[in-house]
Design a protein that fits this description.
This protein is an alpha/beta fold. The protein contains 12 helices and 11 strands. The chain has 2 domains: 166 residues, D-Maltodextrin-Binding Protein, domain 2; 116 residues, D-Maltodextrin-Binding Protein, domain 2 (3-Layer(aba) Sandwich), CATH 3.40.190. Strands 2-1-3-10-4-11 form a 6-stranded mixed β-sheet, with helices on both faces. Strands 8-5-9 form a 3-stranded antiparallel β-sheet, with helices on both faces. Helix 1 packs parallel to helix 10, helix 2 packs across helix 10 and helix 7 crosses helix 12. The longest helix has 25 residues.
Length: 327
């Protein structure tokens, strides 16, 4: 082969190689996209996702439909993503409880969520509330700790929305720091937990940052503290645990994932549009109303790094507090 012909062939291959990602990025999506979510319809994360999905539908001019797959501690939805073709037409919208916290609690799963799925975009972050019935005399975290230690028979239990939940992990960590003796009562649903807390059946409980806001604002329950570094927009006067002497920065979050092997241009394109959507006034206002905050992490690499750090933190708590999953 002549030198000129050989060089021309190399140039052609180079151009072809460079153009493929651009073509993939330009043509995706060319048909409807399904978004799996491990939560039931009407939950906080489902509402957030539907707001994002509507915007993506408008942007891409293809339907982004929500497919609720609750159950199995989130594994039903996660495994459905892992078995899906890596073509960008099946996406997962999941959360910390169904991924890094589950991995910390159940190492027997044999899943590393940061590696067995592709983290794309972290969307929402938020702490969880430590709540008490209004008849409990404690007004802050240190008063509550002192009250529980002085009255172990009266304040012998606390509630959360399940074994291995964010609230369960956090309280077991706090018990280690303070020497409190108080037993965990897992509830099947958050509405039941809040009802029993408001009526005095339960005195102390942990809850997500969205559902109890009307109860807090109506005075039916009192918020003692919130985890993480941020105040929550609908109840900004609730102090963080760190401000009260017990820094706990592991927080709940929500985000998008794609199957391993998805072309990088699709990963990048989805990340760009989700980040753009999260910065719109409409989404910001929706999150504010829901007492949630947008993540400050922008790239897939930052999201993956946070997941890897979180797994280590939750795993230490599970080990130190002997938190075990119940099948």
């Amino acid at each position: 082969m002549k030198r000129s012909t050989f060089l021309a062939s190399l140039a052609s291959l180079a151009v072809t190689g460079l153009s493929r990602p651009a073509i993939a990025q330009d043509t995706w999506p060319s048909r409807p996209v399904k978004i799996l979510i491990p939560s039931a319809a009407g939950t906080g994360s489902d509402i957030v996702l539907r707001g994002i999905a509507d915007r993506l539908t408008t942007t891409f001019k293809q339907p982004f439909t929500v497919d609720n797959r609750p159950g199995g501690s989130g594994l039903i939805a996660s495994r459905a993503l892992m078995s899906a073709p890596p073509d960008g037409y099946t996406i997962l919208y999941s959360n910390a409880s169904a991924t890094v916290m589950l991995q910390a609690l159940r190492p027997d799963l044999g899943i590393d969520f940061a590696k067995d799925m592709v983290p794309v975009s972290l969307t929402v972050v938020g702490g969880v509330f430590l709540l008490v019935n209004p008849q409990v005399p404690a007004k802050n975290l240190n008063e509550l700790i002192a009250l529980v230690k002085a009255n172990p028979a009266k304040y012998s239990t606390y509630g959360s929305w399940g074994i291995g939940s964010n609230g369960h992990f956090t309280m077991e960590w706090l018990k280690k720091q303070t020497g409190m003796q108080i037993e965990h009562v897992p509830y099947k649903t958050i509405p039941t937990l809040l009802t029993e807390l408001a009526t005095g059946v339960l005195s102390i409980a942990w809850c997500d940052s969205i559902t109890p806001v009307p109860f807090i604002q109506a005075g039916k329950v009192r918020a003692i503290a919130v985890t993480g570094p941020l105040h929550m927009p609908q109840v900004p006067d609730v102090a963080t645990m760190g401000e009260q002497g017990y820094p706990f920065d592991l927080v709940g979050w929500q985000g998008f994932f794609l199957p391993v092997g998805t072309p990088q241009p699709i990963v990048s394109r989805l990340n760009e549009e989700v980040m753009r959507t999260m910065s719109t006034p409409e989404l910001k206002q929706m999150l504010n109303r829901m007492n949630a905050s947008s993540s400050q992490l922008r790239t897939p690499e930052e999201f993956r790094g946070m997941m890897l750090r979180d797994v280590g933190g939750w795993r230490r708590i599970a080990r130190d507090s002997n938190i075990q999953a119940v099948d």
